[in-house]
Amino acid sequence: MAAVGSIQVPIVLVHSGPLPLWQQPWLTQVGPAIQAALQHGELSVERILGAVGGIDPGRPGVLLHYSDPFLLRGLRQWQGARLLACGDLHHGSSPIETLAAYFEAEPRDAVLLTFNPALVAQVRQWLQVPVRLAGRAASCKPLKE
Fold first, then answer.
1. What is the pTM of this model?
2. How are beta strands 11-14 and 131-133 bridged, if at all?
3. How far is CA 18 from CA 9, 29, 35, 38, in A?
4. What is the number of alpha carbons within 13 Å of residue 29 lying toward its C-beta?
């Protein structure tokens, strides 16, 4: 858990990689545990909770979803803050519009752009939530450390 003021807040990072992105004692990473769920269809909050023990969706906490390369469904089940970290918004014919449609179906509280700093204003306009550059996005380097 991470401390926000004097409150301990659980933070869950959902990503598709087989290895942890960051080694932090306060961060629960479910990337390595969701490989089977990804192979059996759409990834959902329900599947994450089934694959990884000890995560309580009813307990206030932060769900940080790194979107590359999959979509997460059932986010309304998560009772805490829901953040989306996304990158590669330069692929496809209408990536921001695609992101906006996904965002409408699966709303978040804020977005962190890990790439494409030049698109911040456009993403803000389309999503109408706080949009920030994460970590090294200003230099177009991956968020991984």
1. 0.76
2. unpaired
3. 25, 10, 7, 12
4. 15
